[in-house]
Amino acid sequence: MTSTLSDSKDGRFQGHFAELLKVEGKLALREPAGLVMGIGFPIILLVIFGIIGIAVPGNVAGTGHTVLDIYVPVIMVVGLISLGISSLPVTLVRYREMGWLRRVSTTPTPPSRLLAAQLTLNLLLALATILIVIFGSELVFGATLNVGIPYFVLSIVLSISVMFSLGLVVAALAPSQTIASALSGGLFFLSLFLSGLWIQPSTVGGPLATIMYYSPSGAAAQALLYSVFNAAPPVTAVATMVVYTGFFAFIATRYFRWE
């Protein structure tokens, strides 16, 4: 009897969550900012750096890798930044400002399930972006990657965790959608810079390079750079992302408001 009730509850939970996820997916298509930034922007960067790699063949001095090889991890991080910092928090703050989170709390569906649906949707978009960048760079532009699966999975999990948890901090602290957009915009461009999109930390050296390596996006890019060439990510990069994720998760949990 207990088993039957448990199975029934699990079935209802899965059904409600699937419906909620379906609704969130339809809303994402109607307001495709997440799709454009999370998938479209990385594809544009992939094409740009792929063309640069074709126009300027050969390896970058001192690395043994082409321009595209080096930038593939950065492009993946850019996708995670777009989804975790730009799309996710603005959507959640908009829901709170509209009173949707409060209204959901009066239904059998708890608000936490709506949050889980948003995280799941953005996670699926992140995985799609990663697959597009990996296979697109290899099949279309001839990138010479040698992805080490265990290292890559570890790096991706930590990269997603640190970017999404930072986005949840913005969602927790921003009192309005306007402020959330401003905070997300500032963090977006700062994270792009620190990830090495415009300039690689190895080329600047000094304190700036250290700041880039130990930033959330810089540590993510560094870990992925090693893992796409079947090398263990640096312990410093892994530890940096773990510490940031724990700190951001604590802040987000402590200050997140449903209404």
Report on this model:
- By secondary structure, the chain is an all-alpha fold.
- It has one domain.
- Helix content is 80%, strand content 0%.
- It is built from eleven helices and no strands.
- The chain has helices spanning 2-30, 33-55, 67-98, 100-104, 111-139, 149-173, 177-195, 201-204, 206-213, 216-227, 235-255.
- Helix 2 runs parallel beside helix 5.
- It starts with a helix and ends with a helix.
- Mean pLDDT is 82; it is low at 4-9.
Give the helix/strand layout:
Layout (H helix, E strand, L loop, with lengths): L1 H29 L2 H23 L11 H32 L1 H5 L6 H29 L9 H25 L3 H19 L5 H4 L1 H8 L2 H12 L7 H21 L4
Helix tally equals 11
Strand content: under 5%
The class by helix and strand makeup works out as mainly alpha
Rg, nearest Å: 20 Å
Shape: globular
Number of domains: 1
* Mean pLDDT over the full residue set: 82
- Determine the N-to-C terminus distance: 39 Å
- Strands, count: 0
- What pattern of helices and strands is seen along the backbone? HHHHHHHHHHH
Estimated helix fraction: over 70%
Largest sheet: none
Spans of at least 5 consecutive residues with low confidence: 4-9
